[in-house]
Amino acid sequence: MKKLMMIINPVAGSGGYKLNFAEGMRLLSDNDYATALFFTRQKGDATRYAREYGKKFDQIACIGGDGTLSEVLAGLMGIENPPSVGYIPMGTANDVATTLRLPKNDIVGAVKVMIAGEPHPFDVGGFGENDYFAYIAAFGAFTDVSYTTPQDQKKALGHLAYVLQGMSVLPNIEPIHTRVEFDDGIIETDLVYGSMSNSTSVAGIIKLREEMVMLGDGISELVLVKDPGDMEGLGNILSSVLSRRFDGDKLIILHTKKARFLFDHPVAWTRDGEEGGEYSDITLVNYHRPVQLIF
Question: Which residue spans of the chain are classified as CATH 2.60.200.40?
Fold first, then answer.
């Protein structure tokens, strides 16, 4: 019998985990999982649970959004040969679930995937000296779009709702003079957005082609959006995003193991959709295959 550690964020997805939760637990029991439940109460609990108790279990699973998964992976970074991780997405953006093609806000469906799935190596991002991110660290426009887009628009327009919401805030964004030092060179320009990611879905808006992203190759994707300048530039960015051509001169997508961002003043960052602090000089790195995700 497999010993499973289930970490649950009870407020993710407005508490939607309760729907079909019993059926999901029955499926696990029927497939020889002995499950121990750990409920988070505040930020950082999932990291602490994974770090302190993870080695006692054969496998870990988490119910919550991308932020909950991020905390779990952060907790496992200090463990040698950590248990593999199953993800039951119950959040808002669910960028990782999109990349892994996991059922969203569907406990029974996600549990079935976890039972039948296999562990796959997964890169984890390093943020500064002691922090981590599961799939993205970002600054500038779009970084809170998945949390500010009205729910009725999400239901009616889907992905386009995120795009429209993101583009609507661009006119109010002040370009940030940025120097980016990455594996193959240096870019210094004015940006309205920058990120380092390991996901086909970036900020709920930019959908990278699947062949552009490999989750365990030791390489992250560097996405930079230059100041559009005017409405024509804004239209070109929108066209590139919607068509997935990514050939405009305002949208830059590169691949790197490491990136250092330098600004003229402290700039606010998000890590996996959560507040990441403000920095005028921050280095992001790709940690190659420290954990395994089940899908």
Answer: 132-289
